[in-house]
From TrEMBL:
Single GO MF annotation: methyltransferase activity
Domain Methyltransferase: 59-154
Species assigned in the record: Streptomyces oryzae
SUPFAM superfamilies, per database record: S-adenosyl-L-methionine-dependent methyltransferases
Example of a GO biological process term: methylation
Keywords annotated in UniProt: Methyltransferase, Transferase
Pfam families named among the record's database cross-references: Methyltransf_25
The UniProt record lists the keyword Manganese: no
Protein name: Class I SAM-dependent methyltransferase
Alphabetized InterPro entries for the sequence: Methyltransf_25, Methyltransf_Superfamily, SAM-dependent_MTases_sf
Record has Ion transport as a keyword: no
Length: 241
């Protein structure tokens, strides 16, 4: 397992690949990039979920190298599962948890568009940092997949950061990134779907309701507030009706 960050040529090679191939290439160094979900977000999510639990069986959707599985192991009493379509990322996850205390997580290679699980299998589904890889038109199907694998009353939980205020450096950085990705995908194949501004809270909330969830927003105050007083991050808690 490497402790080195990816080089610029390595990142360029990843960006010119498909999403799956790109993550296979990036996997050995992924945990040393800014793309890994920060521990502060994972810890805040775990604290919030402990107040809603305990849960029995949990699934980390698009688990990558398994950072989010740590949250499941803290709040679930039985089985924890990570699913991802990148063999490289799953290999890193297996390595990271090879010496973890039992029960060991289960790692499953599968596509979030067609989850390879029986219906009503989990009490909790979480996901961290993966939704930029799904276009807005794909949300209803994705949420339907999650709802199908949740037991009645089960919870779908994921953090959502507040968008940067218009005119700030962060706002222009994300706008520029998304614009560059649209140009890249217009002129290059295979596509690499990754956008930061395609999942606004109001639209996500609407699609969850239409998919058959009841939705509550839980502030994560330990992650701070913006200058206008809005929380920097909220935890979406969607309960299967």
């Amino acid at each position: 397992m490497t402790t080195q960050r990816p080089t610029l040529p390595e990142l360029a090679r990843q960006a010119l690949s498909s999403v799956q191939r790109g993550y296979d290439l990036l996997a050995p160094k992924f945990d040393h990039t800014e793309y890994r979900t920060p521990d502060t977000v994972l810890d805040a999510t775990a604290r919030a979920l402990r107040a809603s639990g305990p849960f029995t069986d949990g699934l980390d959707l698009c688990c990558g190298t398994g950072a989010g599985v740590r949250v499941l192991r803290e709040v679930c009493t039985d089985r924890t599962v990570g699913v991802d379509f990148s063999a490289g990322m799953l290999a890193e996850a297996r390595y990271a948890y090879a010496t973890a205390a039992p029960p060991a997580p289960h790692w499953v290679r599968g596509d979030a568009h067609a989850l390879p699980f029986r219906r009503a299998t989990f009490d909790l589904v979480v996901s961290f940092g993966a939704f930029g890889h799904f276009l807005p038109a794909e949300r209803p199907h994705l949420f339907a997949q999650v709802r199908a694998v949740l037991r009645e009353g089960g919870t779908f939980a994921f953090p959502m950061a507040a968008p940067p205020r218009p005119g700030t450096a962060a706002y222009w950085a994300l706008l520029g990134f998304d614009a560059a990705m649209r140009v890249r995908n217009a002129v290059w194949r295979p596509r690499f779907v990754m956008y930061y501004r395609t999942w606004p809270l109001a639209e996500v909330h609407r699609d969850l309701l239409e998919a058959g969830f009841d939705v509550t927003l839980h502030q994560l105050p330990e992650l701070g507030h913006r200058d206008d007083g809005a929380p920097r991050c909220r935890l979406i808690l969607a309960t299967k009706r």
